[in-house]
Design goal:
- It is a single chain.
- The protein has one domain: IHF-like DNA-binding proteins (HU Protein, Chain A, Irregular).
- The protein contains 3 helices and 5 strands, in the order ααβββββα.
- The strands form 2 sheets. The chain has a 3-stranded antiparallel β-sheet with strand order 1-2-5. A two-stranded antiparallel ribbon has the order 3-4.
Amino acid sequence: MKKTELIEAVAAKAGLTKKDAEKAVNAVLDSVVGAVAAGDKVTLVGFGTFESRKREGRVGQNPRTGEKIEIAATTVPAFKAGQAFKNAVAK
């Protein structure tokens, strides 16, 4: 499902126009991204949790040349599915 398909599904389920559904979807996504970027955790009960995680620096290898390279530490976004989400997918 692409973003436009998600917007159409939200519009149909919520009885909104596509324009209003697009605003709602964009507002939710922007809010989640902003909160996680600020270091907050966003928990949607039954759906899952969005958070940022620190990834330690490490030594990697260039697959083309075999040369060892240093990969810097970074912070990455992470998602952990909630139990209801896991159960729905497992069926």
